[in-house]
Amino acid sequence: MMPKVTCLMPCFNTPPARLRTAIRSIVRQTHDNLCLIIGDDASTNASTVETLQRAQERFSDKVRVLRRAENGGTARALDIALWASDEDTVYYTVAASDDYCHPSWEERRTKMLESLPPQVALVYDNYMMVTDFAMNLRAWRPALGRDAQPIMRPSAIPILLRPYDYRALLETNYIPGVSMWRASVYEKIPKTFLFDGYDSECMRHGEDYWHWLQITDYFDAFWIDVDPAFTWTYRFSLNAKSSDRRGVDRARAFIQKMARERRGLG
What we know:
The chain is of the alpha/beta class and 266 residues long. Helix content is 30%, strand content 24%. The chain is built from eight helices and eleven strands. The strands form two sheets. Strands 3-2-1-4-9-6-10 form a seven-stranded mixed β-sheet. Strands 5-11-7-8 form a four-stranded mixed β-sheet. α2 (46-58) links the parallel β2 and β3 (63-67). It starts with a strand and ends with a helix. The model has no long low-confidence stretch (mean pLDDT 92).
């Protein structure tokens, strides 16, 4: 029997069409022994809540939805899903609620971890990024009118990563937030994405970066150099959490400082 994979999906007011696509791309994975636990961070969009309810009803054998009473950030949404997983889980993974995953994504990563020594506890892979670019309206405004809005054009960009190196990871987080890791890491680190400073210094950013550095305090990571078309697709928009560069940069600096102190690297 294939080892059990528990996929954690944080969600907050994700547009229904994107949310449905993300959920279907997980429940239709070729790795059969998989469950999806969605941590809803107190969504206020009625259509988002309805989409989650319908997904749980339709895919009742694979999908669980847990709703927080109040909004607390991605770390808390991940935690409510993480803590609800059962003891049979061998590997954990994260999927964003507006991304799309290739059908064989989880099977390929599971097989890779199965083939690697226990010291390697985290794997990550290349991906595609879909972003929207606004056309330049300056030349078009005379024809379109003063109130014309930017026209968004999707663009797909392959993102090729780099081999794992702890000191390089201390300089920048090149490991995606949707990576896969062994459940056994929680014998060494706290079973949580939340950390001191998450709400204040980090402005609710960096939960994945913190988690990866905690894991790699004890274990190694491994880059799966595979064609991005066969992994997952990240959707970047101006409303994305990562577009808050001030918050991201502040969180990165804080997390790096804490990791260096923890490892005695100065």
